[in-house]
Amino acid sequence: QVQLVESGGGWVQAGGSLRLSCAASGLTFSVYSMGWFRQAPGKEREFVAAIAWSGGTPYYADSVKGRFTISRDNVKNTVYLQMNSLKSEDTAVYYCAAERYLRGNYDNQGSYTYWGQGTQVTVSS
Known about the structure:
This protein is mainly β. The protein has strands at 3-7, 10-13, 18-25, 32-39, 46-51, 59-60, 68-73, 78-83, 92-100, 114-115, 119-124. The strands form two sheets. Strands 2, 4, 5, 6, 9, 10 and 11 form a seven-stranded mixed beta sheet that branches. Strands 1-3-8-7 form a four-stranded antiparallel beta sheet, with no helix packed on it. β5 (46-51) and β6 form a beta hairpin.
């Protein structure tokens, strides 16, 4: 069974940093494209960042570009989201998602088959 487990969320002051991790199991990690999404209270889930199974240039939402960095470690079967210069607007539950051989439409929730349970990130201003 495919399982995605996020970790690293918590409370942080505005301007601070956090690094989220998503550990994958039950799949051949190296052939799965990985994405990060987030959902704030009362709002729709939105795209944050993605990285393809084949590597290449990662994709970012405009709201996080220049502040967040997505990366993956195929040995550890883990995808990371380094979040710097955090703002109160970044407060949300962050979800990890995976799709086998996904190429394109990385910002579409419907592109991903597997999802983690989410981890809470709260940024105080």
